[in-house]
Amino acid sequence: MEAIRQTYFQECEELLLAMEEGLLALENGADGETINAVFRAVHSIKGSGGAFGFEALVRFAHGFETVMDQLRAGQLEAGGDVTALLLRAGDLLADHVAAARDGGAAPEDGEVSAALAALAGAEGGDEDFAPADFEGLDFVPLQIVVEDAPPAPTPMQGWRIRFAPHAALYANASEPALLLRALRGLGDLTVAADVSTLPALEALSPQAAYFAWDMTLAGDIPRAAVEEVFDFVTGQCDLDIAPLTFLLVAPPEADAPQIVPLAQVAPPAEKAPEKPDRKDGESRQTIRVDLDKVDRLVNLVGELVITQAMLSQRVAECKIPRASSVGNGLAELEHLLRELQDSVMAIRTQPVKSVFQRMPRLVRELAAQTAKKVHLVLEGEATEVDKTVIERLGEPLTHMIRNAVDHGLESPEERRAAGKSEEGTVTLSAEHRGGRIVIEVADDGRGIDRARVRQKAVERGLIPAGATLSDEETDNLIFMPGFSTAKEVSNISGRGVGMDVVRRNIVDLGGRIVIGNSPSQGSRFSLTLPLTLAVLDGMVVAIGGQTFVLPLTHIVESLKPRAADIQAFGRGRNLLNVRGAYVPLVMTGEILNVPDARPPSDGVVILVESQGTGRLALAVDAILGQRQVVIKSFEDNYRHIGGIAAATILGDGRVALILDVDGIVARCRDRIADLNDLQPTGT
Amino acid sequence: MHQRQDDSSGPRRQFITFRSGAQEFGADIMAIREIRGWTETTPLPHAPDYVRGVINLRGVVLPVVDLKARLGLGLTQANPKHVIVVVQAADRTIGLLVDAVSDILTVTAGDIQPTPELAREAQSEFVEGIAVLSERLVTILGMDRLVGSLVGEAKAA
């Protein structure tokens, strides 16, 4: 039962997205197909919800559905207030689904329900409906099937099909109703259910198959098309397809009740025309695959790539020329593997649409709360990025959109005074750029008020009063922990957790965030993120004969220090003079307990940016190169180690550890605290 | 390899036996995934001495534990003749560094004696019991406990 529930909620999520999409499309003018799509979504949510006894959900969805039904029938006009109400209803339906899923209290829907009922008028009220109705379905659509195709009294082209599923068909979770509907998509279909083998109730086995269907499919349809419908159930049913050559005998009267069992297994029957009618090529076929299976595939391919690299190395060691047949074969293999790896990685990607689609609702709510007029523009929703990245994008994006509406945009009056249109625009866009994904949140509001930011930072003691800061540095102050510029703490964004959290989220994802600010013109936040969390770009470094990988996103620059640039500072601490600025110098080898690390004056230092402490210099022996590495967790089999983020496997098949800069900083602090014993330092 | 059949009552269990130092140990065959030769490990910082580091086992990063050191009997001087027994227990997969794998042993539950009281301290908490065969004594190790101990210490360390 739990599994079925989960499936239901998964479907609900998809349906809600489809509904939201449809409702937004309604804002820009209604067409029949869009209204239908929304109706179907609401209807399906209600229908299946009834089976689980989600009464509040079903009751609300019913009112919603009634209005959609009237829209569909042309009894109501979409537009203006109606659309706005429908959007609110859509939001509430999503809340209802969430409440049903998490077992929380149903949301307060009285007002919207009443408005929907008022809209639907008397017609909505007098319909008697039972929330606990097992199927939550009406039978009307199926009646249409019968009425649609009265057996024509003239000779006709077509097929006579007898379809008798075996129990195996049901055991494989195939759904006869779907097949029948697919058939109906091909032409005029008349269906008669054969229930003659149905035993008495006490003899009925829930595992067995009893029904068969006799169908006539009228129209000039190739046999292959008919057979294709049953492609997936071959061998699991008795199928007899014969050309229709003689006058069809009308099915006897008794057929009418026989069709009813079909209705019981049928989800909303209107769904059938959906596929053929779908516009913009969205009817691509998809399958659901367990993420673990995909991950396993990704791992295996990664392993294959490493093995191939090792093989190439061995071949090169054997002095076999690259131009030989072996060399050519290897080159071909390498090429294929790279392609395979890209394809496998692509399986894990999803369009950012799933995150972007949550934003219109957020903006609507924010606009209502702040009494601002906001127009949200979404661009590049089809841009694909790894699923894990998508999952973790929601929170930072929500925060940034909130900031844009709450802090960025002015009130309509202010905007008018500034010579702008009353309606502010927030643009959320995504695009691929140089192997990474760039997501931008831009608004045409007042921009970041640098003077105020500065004043605030001084008040909060984040910077000294006399500090000289460039414009860019000033803008970046908003990322400091505990910084919030809202004059009053509003319940929208100013909760003390602000942009610093956003930045941490983004950095955790291996990304960066950049502000583009033009006062009174607006601000633009650009997030640059890796396309996947499965690989990262790293600098391969040597420390005391061991190999480590430093994530490139943390690295600012690398340099070879002179002995004179290194200054001892306090106990066990060193500072490095980088063109006049002193940054803490970390003896990475010591922190990682690696023996035989070279002294920094003899090695290389890498300047890195860490959260909280800013820049610091890591001393390493040498830089071995830069490469993309596949991230492998070892915590599943071992445990977390401070200073180490994960592991990876290098081209020679050996494991290298990926350093975690923030973890190293934390280790340093502990170490210094230990050294200073009872006198912990301030930093 | 010889199989020892025992017709005394009780369910039969199979153990892989291996040598580490001067002793012979046994581990339930169901916990053993594979046996492979020693390869150089990548050391892990701040790990106890018996954690020899990690190796690449077909794409999985596998921690390798030196059994001898784990039992407090000193570090193994590993060379290519040594063997890593890949163990899956307590939801984890680890490698166990031993000197050599010797045998597969089939015994009944009755053949396994509890650890003698006096011997307990030295053999620590991982010993399930001892199997006494005609000429030898095999210490049966509980893999769940051995592997699990690696996790338990994580919090303490």
Topology:
The complex is a heterodimer of chains A (683) and B (157).
Chain A: H1 2-27, H2 32-51, H3 55-72, H4 80-102, H5 110-120, H6 122-126, H7 140-148, E1 158-165, H8 167-171, H9 176-186, E2 188-194, E3 212-218, H10 223-229, E4 237-243, H11 255-265, H12 274-277, H13 291-317, H14 325-347, E5 349-351, H15 353-356, H16 359-370, E6 373-379, E7 384-386, H17 387-391, H18 394-408, H19 412-417, E8 423-433, E9 436-443, H20 450-459, H21 471-476, H22 499-508, E10 512-518, E11 522-530, E12 535-543, E13 546-551, E14 555-559, E15 566-568, E16 574-578, E17 581-587, H23 588-591, E18 604-610, E19 614-620, E20 622-630, E21 644-649, E22 655-659, H24 661-675
Parallel strand pairs in A: 6-8, 13-22, 17-19
Antiparallel strand pairs in A: 1-3, 1-4, 2-3, 5-7, 8-9, 9-11, 10-11, 12-13, 12-20, 14-18, 15-16, 16-17, 18-19, 21-22
Chain B: E1 12-20, E2 23-28, E3 32-37, E4 51-57, E5 60-66, H1 67-70, E6 83-89, E7 92-98, E8 100-108, E9 112-113, H2 120-123, E10 127-132, E11 137-141, H3 143-156
Parallel strand pairs in B: 2-11, 5-7
Antiparallel strand pairs in B: 1-2, 1-8, 3-6, 4-5, 6-7, 9-10, 10-11
